[in-house]
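Hi support team,

I've been running sequence recovery on a batch of backbones for a student project. Most finish fine, but this one hangs at about 90% for roughly twenty minutes before it completes. I'm not sure whether the input is malformed or the queue is just slow. I've pasted the structure tokens below so you can try to reproduce it. Let me know if you need the job ID as well.

Thanks,
M.K.
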């Protein structure tokens, strides 16, 4: 398909809105004339660099987010389950190890990045299980179809400077495009990058790149 628009998706599995945006873009990657590129990045780093704070830190916003994510999950047909306890889980867990694991997979076996990322979200946001401990990361990897051998190899890579640096670089790239949260979607169209923040701006993305929006669950 000629002249495909490169669309970069900067995301972190700690972010439920990133899951919504990820699933919609995965559905559209064969409908729209786009080259979808997964860019695993670290939300903690973006928050720190921009002075942003998680929505749950503001009580009114946290109240709204509980309703919003439930409505979005239903409309987008993504099995996010959110409760008040999740806000503490997010603050207590951190996603650095998970995002390094996805980064290492991207560097060695990029074809596994889509199912692997999805399994991290499912484990954290549907099953309410831990994603920070090595044994849980290995469970996620097996669920995503990585062999035990490969999972172990990738796990050993997460402490390497190469993987740490790659995750830092990807996060810095998101910041360079103007990201202040996740998901951050960057469409390279007409020779310039266009940043869209959030999972509810994909209709607008379509409009900018001249593609037809067919709702979050195109048939």
């Amino acid at each position: 398909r000629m002249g495909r628009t490169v669309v970069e998706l900067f995301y972190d599995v700690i972010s439920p809105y990133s899951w919504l945006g990820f699933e919609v873009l995965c559905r559209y990657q064969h409908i729209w004339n786009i080259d979808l590129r997964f860019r695993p990045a670290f939300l903690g780093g973006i928050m720190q660099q921009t002075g942003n704070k998680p929505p749950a830190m503001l009580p009114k916003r946290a109240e709204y987010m509980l309703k919003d994510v439930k409505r979005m999950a239903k409309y987008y047909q993504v099995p996010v389950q959110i409760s008040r306890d999740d806000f503490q889980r997010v603050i207590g867990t951190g996603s650095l190890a998970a995002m390094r694991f996805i980064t290492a997979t991207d560097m060695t076996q990029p074809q596994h990045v889509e199912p692997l990322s999805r399994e991290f979200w499912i484990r954290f946001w549907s099953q309410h299980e831990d994603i920070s401990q090595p044994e849980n990361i290995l469970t996620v990897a097996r669920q995503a179809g990585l062999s035990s051998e490969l999972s172990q190899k990738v796990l050993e890579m997460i402490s390497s400077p190469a993987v740490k640096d790659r995750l830092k670089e990807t996060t810095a790239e998101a910041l360079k495009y103007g990201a202040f949260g996740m998901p951050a979607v960057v469409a390279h169209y007409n020779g310039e990058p266009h940043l869209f923040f959030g999972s509810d701006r994909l209709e607008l993305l379509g409009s900018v790149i001249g593609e037809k929006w067919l709702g979050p669950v195109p048939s």
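--
Follow-up from support: It reproduced on our side and the slowdown came from queue contention, not your input. The first strand starts at residue 5 and ends at 11. No action needed from you.
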